[in-house]
Design a protein that fits this description.
about 0% strand, single chain, mainly alpha, 22 helices, Sodium/glucose cotransporter
Length: about 525
């Protein structure tokens, strides 16, 4: 029954996505990479949320909540503030320049080499970190929920390999042959399912704890686990409170404001108003994120205590325990959609970055738009295979979510540095950007290696990110003062889309920020 509903829902989403893309010309860059610049606020919000909300979030963050409690909600709630900043400050500048990729701006602001280095960093991050983690956590969830080892009579390890390749092959077909519009439409349908399914898990969990009463379940959970409901992390926690004001905010700003896999949805907006509405709608829903990615982890701790082999097993175990059998197939299908979404989005963005920023620039300058799209697709196939081979080896990592956030710093902070300085100054030269991006990446990698292999007491990795960000900004400003550009940078309006802002953008942004701060006050 579960497998039939799983296959039925998955097939339904695929058919609707295929029909929705029939009218989009995907032989052009705008058509394939940006959905023909036709995305509306609701589609952007759905796609943003589902691109972000995948199994590395649901499985990984609930695993962290199982261990540490509500303090890990910082990864969710603070994202809302970063999305407000993106909507008000960054998106108007992106759409004014008619960008398809973030590195395109870096070419205009600095030079081609800066764009190539940044695209290379993005692609390395996606290939080594993001794509394998999405595949691994997705496989862990599906393997546990459907009990694949018992179903197929194989070991846990082999079950993970089978699921990784199954997800990877289906996801590649979607992302490489469907383009952004197919990804965005399937995202929107799955987003609705994931929000419904995601909220069902804590509801059924609380009903189980409260013996049929949600209110009683909440009372028991708070009474028996008070230490899990303190949002202020101590120095030994994965998120000490002070990091919220240092690296945490920078990571969020990078992720929601400059990460190609995320911002590509907003770059496909039909106009600035729709882009801003999409970002702010998504940020409102993001504040409710802890109900889906934190609360179930705490419920799992209450139910299973310390009986699990790994914290990352908490969420799939909770689902298989509290969800009625008839709904397991539907929820697995929605979760499968979420896995595909994150995998598709990173793969689609990698295809975009390679096709436009590397192939067209360095391999074949005379390439037609059709050739660029074809080259991107070929690259995407190789990248997907590479990620599928690496993914199963992540079984040996301790906490997947913390590992993901820590390793991301080697490319997130350097890229954020040069984009922020690029928009806020007019005369900082290209050489300053190249030095800062290489310095940021090398110093951070050096820190990670020393932190893992020596007994030196380094600051928390989020503090290190903030220190390197400030160091590299100062470095760029000094180089800008010593060797300024001959002419100041002026951003031109390409008139690709209307950039009239939404009139309620600022007041809505303020309301969102107040809600986030209030949630911290409540849980402190």
């Amino acid at each position: 029954m579960g497998i039939i509903s799983f296959l039925g829902f998955t097939l339904l989403v695929a058919v609707i996505s295929y029909l929705a893309t029939l009218k989009t010309d995907e032989n052009t860059s705008d058509g394939y990479f940006l959905g023909g610049r036709s995305l509306t606020g609701v589609v952007i919000a759905g796609s943003l949320l589902l691109t972000n909300l995948s199994t590395e979030q649901i499985v990984g963050l609930n695993g962290s909540a199982f261990t540490e409690g509500v303090l890990v909600m910082a990864w969710e709630t603070l994202a809302a503030i970063a999305m407000v900043i993106t909507a008000i400050f960054l998106l108007p500048r992106y759409l004014k320049g008619g960008l398809t990729t973030v590195p395109q701006f870096l070419e205009r602001r600095y030079d081609v080499a800066t764009k190539a280095i940044t695209s290379g960093l993005f692609l390395t991050g996606y290939a080594i970190v993001l794509l394998p983690i999405v595949l691994y956590t997705g496989s862990l969830a599906l393997s546990t929920m459907f009990n694949v080892p018992e179903l197929l009579g194989v070991s846990k390890n082999l079950a993970i390999w089978i699921c990784v390749f199954g997800i990877g092959i289906v996801g590649s077909i979607y992302a490489i042959f469907g383009g952004l519009k197919a990804v965005a439409v399937s995202d929107t349908i799955n987003a609705v399912g994931l929000l419904i399914g995601g909220i069902m898990i804590p509801v059924f969990g609380l009903l189980e704890i409260g013996e049929g009463s949600i209110g009683e379940g909440i009372t028991v959970l708070f009474r028996d686990n008070p230490e899990k409901f303190d949002a202020i992390g101590g120095s030994e926690s994965s998120i000490p409170f002070a990091t919220i004001f240092t690296g945490m905010m920078l990571v969020q700003l990078f992720y929601w404001g400059t990460n190609q896999a995320i911002i590509q949805r907003a770059l496909g907006a039909k106009n600035l108003k729709e882009g801003q509405k999409g970002l702010l709608l998504a940020s409102f829903i993001k504040i409710l994120g802890p109900l889906i990615v934190v609360l179930p982890g705490i419920i799992a701790f209450h139910m299973f205590g310390n009986t699990l082999d790994k914290a990352d097993e908490a969420y799939p175990m909770l689902v298989s325990k509290v969800l009625p059998l008839s709904l397991v197939g539907f929820f697995a299908a929605v979760l499968f959609g979420a896995i595909l979404s994150s995998f598709n989005s990173a793969l689609n963005s990698s295809v975009t970055l390679y096709g436009i920023d590397i192939y067209k620039e360095f391999v074949n300058k005379e390439a037609t738009e059709k050739q660029v799209v074809k080259a991107g697709k070929t690259f995407g196939i190789f990248l997907a295979i590479f990620a599928m081979v690496i993914a199963p080896f992540l079984q040996h990592a301790e906490s997947i979510f913390t590992y993901l956030q820590k390793v991301n710093g080697c490319y997130s902070i350097p890229i954020l540095t040069i984009i922020v300085v690029g928009y806020l100054t007019k005369r900082v030269p290209a050489i300053a950007a190249k030095i800062a991006i290489l310095s940021g990446a090398v110093l951070y990698i050096l820190y990670v290696i020393l932190d893992e292999t020596t007994d030196i007491a380094f600051p928390h990795f989020l503090h290190v990110m903030a220190i390197l960000f400030v160091f590299n900004v100062v470095l760029m400003l000094v180089l800008g003062a010593l060797y300024p550009r001959e002419t100041p940078y002026v951003q031109e309006y390409t008139k690709e889309v209307d950039i009239q802002p939404w009139k309620y953008v600022k007041i809505t942004g303020i309301v969102i920020c107040v809600i986030v701060i209030s949630s911290y006050v409540y849980f402190s």
